[in-house]
């Protein structure tokens, strides 16, 4: 019996063959080998559809070099592709369609709006979801502004804190600030209620591209915003577990905490203790957040098909209430290195591999017994 083989499905970042996250995959390949799992990397354009073969990217730990080799299809696929506005993304959609019958560790989640609507149906999540609407016309924004002193506008397919606006009531007027599509800071501007719409005219808010969300007050005493990044993963027993949760503090003048936008990572306990001074309360919040993280992962897996990991952007308000700002299906793990949690980072790399091995064993056993699996 040969070894199980896992293919990491990714995308080239440009037309020159630059692979996203190659250093992370390198670590996964080395760790996989130690666990008895062979791992290679490929993109949809490396697939020869006629011959059902893949021109795989292989890493050789002995020579510390990457090479290419023709391979047959792997037993399992770990889909790491993030949304891209390019012909490569169209190719990816074709691949997912044609090979949808293969064993994927993780299926595709939908955009922020669809995920919100799915979660909203479940009673237990209601108190954790900031009120959110699709921006269909200026009415949607105006009604939210009337209802909440702080409102966020976010692209439904956005990532990394791009194209986000924050509108905050300040006395009789409003302050608008944010990050443009290139993540540049948009400095605060004060406007009257009647001028908000015209001030936003250069933003492409139409075409159901944006959502309007109740804002949570997350400014620390130094004026910076903060939130938490929780990584929930399946372990080697096929069960959901919280791998770690780290705090993020936004750059100065930033309305987002994303690390790529200059945010800093810090241990959760340290950040939370600054925000909520009662030790017992912080312990209680951390325990509740963990439970919530696992519940969300279980629920989304039931809704969208098999998943192996999710990163949740969580906010904790002054009262200790936990809010879910966003679900990330293709999480980076670097936040844990930056927060000084090397062990958590290592676990974050290894868990999907251990889960893949577990899944492979399950499938083998099922084949022997001919019992169909839940998600394929
Ligand atoms: N409703 C909100 N209230 C307060 N801050 C928010 C809200 N939504 C987003 N943010 C801030 O903006 C950041 C980016 O928003 P997010 O929804 O995670 O989009 P992205 O996909 O760009 O990361 C969050 O990490 C948080 O710092
Ligand atoms: Mg986010």
Q: What does this molecule look like?
A:
This protein has 376 residues and is of the alpha+beta class. The chain folds into three domains: 100 residues, 3-Layer(aba) Sandwich (Rossmann fold); 155 residues, D-amino Acid Aminotransferase, Chain A, domain 1 (2-Layer Sandwich), CATH 3.30.470; 84 residues. 31% of the residues lie in helices and 28% in strands. The strands form four sheets. The protein has a six-stranded antiparallel sheet with strand order 8-13-9-10-11-12, sandwiched between helices. It has a five-stranded antiparallel sheet with strand order 16-15-14-17-18, sandwiched between helices. Helix 1 crosses helix 9. The longest helix is centred in the last third of the chain and has 28 residues. The relative contact order is 0.13. The mean pLDDT is 95. The structure holds adenosine-5'-diphosphate (ADP) and magnesium ion. The site of magnesium ion has 3 residues, from strand 18. This is YheC/YheD family protein. Pfam families: ATPgrasp_YheCD. It comes from Paenibacillus albus. InterPro entries: YheC/D.
Question: Which structural traits does this protein have?
Answer:
376 residues, Rossmann fold, binds magnesium ion, D-amino Acid Aminotransferase, Chain A, domain 1, globular, 9 helices, binds adenosine-5'-diphosphate
Distance between the termini: 23 Å
Helix fraction bin: 25-40%
Biggest sheet architecture = 6 strands, antiparallel
What's the architecture of the largest domain in CATH terms?
2-Layer Sandwich
CATH topology of the largest domain: D-amino Acid Aminotransferase, Chain A, domain 1
Assign the CATH superfamily of the largest domain.
ATP-grasp fold, B domain
Point out poorly predicted stretches.
none
Give the overall form. Answer: globular
Rg, nearest Å = 22 Å
Mean pLDDT metric: 95
What is the total number of structural domains? Answer: 3
Question: Could you give the count of β-strands?
Answer: 18
String of helices and strands = EHEEEEEHEHEHEEEEHEEEEHHEEHH
Residue share in β-strands? 25-35%
Q: What structural category arises from helix and sheet content?
A: alpha+beta
Q: Which CATH class of the largest domain? A: Alpha Beta
InterPro entries: YheC/D
Protein name: YheC/YheD family protein
Pfam family, one: ATPgrasp_YheCD
